[in-house]
Amino acid sequence: MHRTVTGEVGPPRLVDLPDGSPAWLVSRPAEVRQVLSDSRFRRAALWSGDGPSLSAVPDLVSNPDLMFNQDGEDHLRLRRTLSRAFTPRAVARWEPWIAAMVEQCLDRLAGCEPPADIVAEYALPLPVMIISRLMGLDPSVRGRLRHWAEHAFSDGSHDGEDVASVMAEFTAFGADLLARRRRTPGDDLVSSIVLAAETEGGIPEAQLVQLVCGLVVGGHDSTMTMVSNCVLYLIGERPECWARLGADREAAERLADRMLHLIPLGDDKGSARHAAEDIEVGGVTIPAGSVVLADCALANRDPETYSARPFDDLFAPLEAPSLSFGAGPHYCLGAWLARLELRLALHRLAARFPGLRPAEPVDQVEWRLGSTSRGPQRFLVAW
User: Please, what is the end-to-end C-alpha distance for the chain in angstroms?
Assistant: First the structure.
């Protein structure tokens, strides 16, 4: 379930959105890159009042002020406030303290009486600690992060009024955090955003608030999901890989890249765009006004670009660049941090717990519901 990708790679074709309206599904790697890179495919127009319903509830992803929902110069102004913070060189400087946090979480896990829930004891607290340090979050708010994330990434099953209420609370938190950093800057990511935004000029406050909120929840939810899913897959289905993962740092890096490539974060059928004009993609003319879904997860399984048996050798380098972090102007700024966190989390877990094994049947694992992220709610392990 955690690594399921449905559908077949092929030419652009019409599919139905959740509300029954049509959309064009694009799934071949080159064509996915085209859609994500061509400025005529836009995000902001998706949230105009007469567009199709892409979300059943007013969650974070459907907020027009979110950086991901900006185009052109509006998007670039926001992105420039973060671009220097997440370069490979900047992320490499964080590795020592991130590695120390990994060991701290492993010490905590070692102090548990098995069986222990690897999600609650390791996969969740680690990214929460990391994003909290990066953004200078007070420990008192850490208990709210999961509540905010569950509503920010709702799959539509939450009550709309409940989501709106939680998002209002979360937005107020983000606005207050920005205000406090303006008054008293510190050595944290929010303070650097404030300084960069003042230098940049012209950025609406609502967009800065949503930028901060997106970092808070996105910065821990995706890593928690990936660590949980990878541990479940590796010790549940590929235990023969565990010893090498713990012993070989370079092999661990290749495995982490392959896991990010092959295990999707959720069931999202693609990164949506709006066609501003008639555009040819893969020999098909997509009419102006159409919604287009660029399915990165499906493109990552294309047997003509990647291995037809991608799970055979988990330590083999990828055959081509992955689309897991998108492409084009909206390529994920946190990609280098995500790779580092996953590599350290898996490598050190395997090194410290060489005998880690499932303490319950894998097919009976309890899955998280209500979120677009797909991962275990809890997963009992022993050692």
Answer: 24
